[in-house]
Design brief:
The protein is 36% helix and 18% strand. By secondary structure, the protein is an alpha/beta fold.
Length: 315
Amino acid sequence: MHPFTFGIYPGSALGAEDGLLIGLPDIPERIQEALNDLQPDGKSFRVRAYIDRDNVQGSTPQHFEQYIAPNRKLDLVLCYRAIDEPFELWTDFIRRTIQQYGPNLATLQITEEANSTGPGGDGITPNVRAALVAGVLAAKTEIQRLGLPIGVGFSATISFNPADDFWTELGQLGGQSFVNALDYVALDFFPDVFVPLQPNVQLSDAVRAVLHQFRHVNMLQAGIPATVPMHIGENGWPTSPTRPYTRQAEVLETIIRTVYEQRETYNIACYELFDLRDANSSNPDIFYQFGLLRDDYSPKPAYGVFKELVAELSV
């Protein structure tokens, strides 16, 4: 049976149009309660966390290692925002991170959305593509040296632009050694959030179209074969005064079931939801309301739906 693992980002900080958005302070005990509740007995589950080398103290969620538990490890994202500095500082940081957190890592993501200059994307950094390749190679070498079972990959957003050179340049920069070092590539996508669906388009059809484009067009342009698994690194649907809680639950169920149904077709091994809790439930801006929980940790309908899907579909 094709392996399929779930995870979630439990922090309150996120990238928004005006930069990093910091929500209300986390309550670790409530986060731990929710993670314990969402993770089925005996099944693997992942906690997504982010670190920036230039601001390690600003990791989100803070002190993320406290959320590690039996069968629950980290999907740790190393963001890259450095400009005009030697890559040795970047690769040294990657090696130190592996040495520090290695036994608690399920996966290590090198850069965050290196092809995106939008909210939260590392594509704003001029040399990020070369940093991505150098980082993946350095991470794989260190993981193999230590004999650790950690998957190495990177994330990207979907591109339908034939003039976009991100994927072809990535393949040229990295070559076969880069492709051989990859254990997965993560897709971050938010259908019907930043670009509303057209009235005649079904959500499930839109999801299938994105998965097809990412696997059979984007990844292939970099020479990444179908044997390298895809992950869903970030996916969610925020609420607001015009985006009802019930619709959030419906959208997430449709997306997750569609991804799961397509897992064999596109070699998808993991789905991680963004995110656990609203940054601020009283703020009508959608960036503040991506959570399955309100900012007081009370559940929206989508929380129960996600919990049931994780229990049903975890393989």
